[in-house]
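Exam revision sheet. Question 4 asks you to relate a sequence to its structure. Input first:
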Amino acid sequence: MPVIAHFCTPGNGVAMFNRHFFAARRAALGLSVEALAEEMRVAPSTVRRWENGETCPSLRTLTLASRHLRIPVGSLMADSEMKRTT
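Answer key, structure tokens:
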């Protein structure tokens, strides 16, 4: 069974899910949580948990989200080293 990477927990300078940018981009496109969830075929509560920082999407789901948000997948990641210095 393949391991699916998640980007919630900082460590070793690895890129992490940028939940704030995710939420801002969704809102900028005029998408409600429910509309994005429906497009992605996930529950609205799942999108809310991503945006609240309770959970993070897998890399596969993050790639799907980037398509729906019309941005490169890298835009949804934040460098943990950068976060510690700001």
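Marking note for examiners. The first strand starts at residue 15 and ends at 17.
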